[in-house]
Amino acid sequence: MKIAVLSGKGGTGKTTVSSSLALISKMLLIDTDIEEPNSHIFLKGNVEDIKSVYTRFPEVNMEKCNLCGECGNFCKFNAIIPAKKRVIVFGEACHDCGGCEIVCKNGAISWEKREIGKIYTGKTHFNSINKYGELNIGEMSGVKIIKEIYKNTEEKDFLIDCPPGTACTTVSAVEVADFAIIVVEPSPFGLSDMKLVVQLLRDMKIPFGVVINKFDEDENIVKKYCDDEKIEIIGTIPFDRKIAETYSKGEIIAEALPEYRENFETILKRVKSYGN
Fold it and tell me: Using CB atoms within 10 A of its CB, is residue 206 exposed (0-12), middle (13-18) or buried (19+)?
């Protein structure tokens, strides 16, 4: 079973949940938050393998190019722009779709490649596997890194620590999931961003449940929404200063605070019940 942990905004507790679930289940954890991966900080493992990920970008042979403009008309990302005397290429904006080469009738386009990031693989301190991708500074898209991680993962069961929000990287991260856990904090901003994730998962037809972090019995804004939308709350994490202090030290909650281990065991049990 592939379980994705995601949220509408950063800082809601995705890594808090995914790292504790990884500890309890001993499942492979893949951190797809390629702009700022942090699961490895909590899992405290050793990196055993580093793989570079490359993307292509077009190179134009001006001896063959007649400046017809078809490549520029095709590219929706403005990565290739025909000018008065030459074609300007913005390699960082290229999404490597290959369309410009297809529409070029003169065969003027070839390809160069560059590194956009790396994939790290290692063991956690509790002897399970951890993978995470890291996008190079200045790059616009890390979707290819996420796809490359999945392509080279043989395990059928794993946890996914997703990027926050509903952008392309989140879609790429969650699309392989059998079930998704939405982590939300009970605030107006948390609820507003959560609604976007709910719509995303419904559009993708991925079953999901909600975990409320910083839970307070008196704060029912998220609970009311879930009740109205018939969304199951599969777990809660109390609003406790000890949890915040433990997290700030880079420690896994279910390990450092045994009194809360049952919270995560309950979440995992309810998620796995969907796979049966």
Answer: middle
151 and 24 in a common domain: yes
Chain length of the chain: 276
Same domain, 104 and 230: no
pLDDT digits (tens, 9 = 90+) for 36-95: 999 999 999 899 999 999 999 999 999 999 999 999 999 999 999 999 999 999 998 999
> Are 25 and 60 part of one and the same domain?
no
Q: What is the CATH number of the domain that holds 29?
A: 3.40.50.300
What is the percent of the chain where pLDDT is above 70? 99
What token pair was written down for 151? 């392509």
212 bridge partner residues = 184, 236
Question: Over the chain, what is the mean pLDDT?
Answer: 93
Both 157 and 209 in one domain: the answer is yes
Residue identified by tokens 């507790």 is 13
Give dist(CA 123, CA 130) in Å, integer: 6
Cβ atoms 183, 13 nearer than 8 A:
yes
Q: For the CA atoms of 140, 143, 149, 150, what is the dihedral angle to 10 degrees? A: 180
Angle formed by the axes of helices 14-25 and 261-273, nearest 10°? 80
Whose CA is closest to 39, among 24, 61, 23?
23
Beta bridge partners of 203: none
Q: Which residues of 70-98 are buried (b: 16+ CB within 10 A; e: fewer)?
A: bbbeebeeebbebeeeebebebeebbbee
Distance of CA 269 to the CA centre of its chain: 23
Range of the domain at 268: 2-45+124-273
Amino acid symbol at 232: E
Q: Look up residue 1 and give its two tokens.
A: 């079973």
